Automatic annotation (TrEMBL):
Coiled-coil stretches: none
Protein name per the record: Four helix bundle protein
Organism, scientific name: Chromobacterium fluminis
Origin superkingdom: Bacteria
Pfam family, one: bAvd
Record-linked InterPro entries: 23S_rRNA_IVS_sf, bAvd
């Protein structure tokens, strides 16, 4: 088992957290405390779920939960761009990262579900 911090999915999840932290810093105060805090917490949860999936014998439940939290991040980002709290370019950069996380998590989930240890 590799260290979770060395996994490609963890690295992209960390990059997403760093980007979200940067984006939410420029949000108006009211939204920074609501949407911004929620986005950051969801991204931290993604990192925690990568760790849990890596450490668990049955990875599938953790990966399913990770994908659910990823949907929340994408929905909140969409709301942020629709409310003009972030630019379309910032939204595109964040969605590119969420797509990478989602593809890796789906692949990992399929592999884990197919293996006999799952």
């Amino acid at each position: 088992m590799a260290l979770h911090t060395q996994l490609p999915i963890y690295k992209v999840t960390y990059d997403l957290l760093a980007l979200i932290t940067k984006l939410t810093a420029s949000m108006p105060r009211d939204f920074k405390r609501s949407l911004g805090d929620d986005l950051r917490k969801e991204c931290v949860t993604l990192s925690i779920l990568v760790y849990r999936a890596n450490a668990a014998r049955n990875k599938v439940p953790h990966l399913v939960e990770l994908l659910e939290h990823l949907q929340v991040v994408e929905l909140t980002l969409r709301l942020s761009v629709d409310m003009r709290l972030i630019s379309h370019g910032q939204y595109a950069a964040a969605i590119e990262l969420t797509d990478k996380v989602g593809k890796q998590a789906q692949g990992w989930r399929k592999h884990a579900a197919a293996s006999p240890a799952a």
